Amino acid sequence: MNRIPSEYRAEIASLYRERHRELWSFASRLLHEERDLAQDMIQEVFQAAAFRWGHLRWLDRGRQRAWLFRVLKNKIFDHWGAAKRQESLPDVWETAAACDTPRVAVSNLLLLRCWSVINSMSRAQRRVALLRWHAEWTTGEIADHLRLSRKTVHAHLSNARHVLLKELGDEVVFPSDWLLMDSEEEVSR
């Protein structure tokens, strides 16, 4: 079992006291009801920081903060991707009538394939797609959160849609809000 070097413990404890509250706020907002998972992820982030402390200790506090948030975001995105792969999709359709069984089976297979294709996209496209289509964030929220321009977010979404259409063909139907801007307010900008 790896242990945190004793010479780093006080510095890491100070960083923990300084940053825990804002990391908690961020993680609990993204993970909604999964408060225990949010706390576990924060602990994992600080463990990772402890083992990289030989490098991180030389960074200024702002860059240390950025590193902590980046690692936490990556852990949350990884969790979302894993949750989508493990999700029991037939439960989503359990109220479907027996005569709809073929349609339900095809829909479930398409949904699984969609998430598989999204998971194979570039990291930036995958993050934008997950925040938009899984977390249901607006493009403005995504842009602010990932520090991208709205045009870049729209480009990633457009490219993701094109990849999905190319991979899955006409069977994929996008809700109209995926094809349009988030609101009239954004169109006027």
Give the helix/strand layout.
Blueprint: H1 9-31, H2 35-51, H3 53-56, H4 61-86, H5 89-92, H6 101-119, H7 123-134, H8 139-146, H9 150-168, H10 176-179, H11 184-187
Q: What features would you describe in this structure?
A:
Helix content is 74%, strand content 0%. The chain has helices at residues 9-31, 35-51, 53-56, 61-86, 89-92, 101-119, 123-134, 139-146, 150-168, 176-179, 184-187. Helix 6 (101-119) packs across helix 9 (150-168), helix 7 (123-134) packs across helix 9 and helix 8 (139-146) crosses helix 9. The longest helix is centred in the middle third of the chain and has 26 residues, at 61-86.
Describe this protein with a few key phrases.
mainly alpha, 189 residues, Arc Repressor Mutant, subunit A, 2 domains
Short description:
The chain has 189 residues and is an all-alpha fold. The chain is built from eleven helices and no strands.
Helical run tally: 11
N-to-C CA distance: 54 Å
Instruction: Determine the fraction of residues in helical runs and give it as a percent range.
Output: over 70%
Tell me the major beta sheet. Answer: none
User: How big a fraction of the residues is strand?
Assistant: under 5%
Tell me the count of domains: 2
